[in-house]
């Protein structure tokens, strides 16, 4: 039976919300989904909790300060694209500081969009996660990309 155990990258995505609007960023020169909209996000570094990773990524990408009690886990997605991934989605509606593009070498636009009218070029699994977060009052779980079916 030996051999290596399966591992999957783990990512946290932050839904920064103001009323019915969500902050999206357009990816730029990253080699992944460039030109398409996503949300502030990043991989867990290991040895950090999901909320800690969200706080770190919000600071690194959008220049804002989140406190742990301002971050709520919204959903979890088991996703298959080029590889298999686990994605956590969190929401924050309050923060300290002014949002700005802290990584212009990876993002060429930060903008607010209605959660009901997302840009056509929003990454598909991000769009699905936003839709689930809007329609669910509890934490949701979704499998996405397996057998070319959405969960």
UniProtKB/TrEMBL annotation:
Keywords: Hydrolase. Transmembrane segments: none annotated. PROSITE patterns: NUDIX (PS51462), NUDIX_BOX (PS00893). InterPro entries: NUDIX_hydrolase-like_dom_sf, NUDIX_hydrolase_CS, NUDIX_hydrolase_dom. Pfam families: NUDIX. Its cofactor is Mg(2+). This is NUDIX domain-containing protein. It comes from Brevibacillus halotolerans.
